[in-house]
Amino acid sequence: MRWIIGIILNAVTVYLIANYLPGVHVDDWTTALLVALLLAVINILIWPIKWLLSLITLGLFGLIVNVSLFGLLSLVVDGFDIDGFVPALYGGLILTLEATIVRFITRK
After folding, report:
1. Which helix (H) or strand (E) holds 20?
2. Which secondary structure element, helix H or strand E, spans residue 81, and what is its range?
3. What residue numbers bound the domain in which 54 lies?
4. Pick from 76, 52, 79: which is nearest to 65 by CA?
5. CA–CA separation, 92 vs 72, rounded Å?
6. Mind telling me which residue stretches traverse the membrane in this protein (predicted)?
7. Mean pLDDT across the chain
8. Which residues of 18-43 are buried (b: 16+ CB within 10 A; e: fewer)?
9. Contact 68, 47 (CB under 8 A)
10. Are the CB atoms for 71 and 42 separated by under 8 Å?
11. Residues 58-82: what's their mean pLDDT?
12. How far apart are CA 38 and CA 16, in angstroms?
């Protein structure tokens, strides 16, 4: 149940980023939900490596992965476009911050 809440909150965050951050464009809620779902699946698949390298780099590696995934998903998902590195960086930073807050609030 916790992962469903996380995906929905990530979708809301992606949609809000697209509405308020210049350079990030999402066509509709369905696209935002697809981006959030793909982010979750990819993060689950690379979690052990991401976790280990984040311990070594004090969380910096996790941030780099999130920024990179945010930018790369714009190449894969139709209706999700990013106009360069800076919007991808800011969007990835916002998503990382949101995920950290959600993880802190929903932990047992």
Report:
1. helix 2-20
2. strand 80-82
3. 2-106
4. 52
5. 11
6. 7-23, 29-48, 55-76, 88-106
7. 89
8. beeeebbbbeeeebbbbbbebbbebb
9. no
10. no
11. 88
12. 17
Instruction: Give the Cβ contact number of residue 44 at 10 Å.
Output: 10
Q: Copy the structure tokens of residue 50.
A: 């991401």
> Alpha carbon of 14 to those of 21, 32, 35, 90: distances in Å?
10, 6, 8, 12
**Tens digits of residue pLDDT in 7-37:** 899 999 999 999 999 999 999 999 999 999 9
Number of domains in the chain: 1
What is the token pair recorded at 1?
């149940």
Contact 70, 108 (CB under 8 A): no
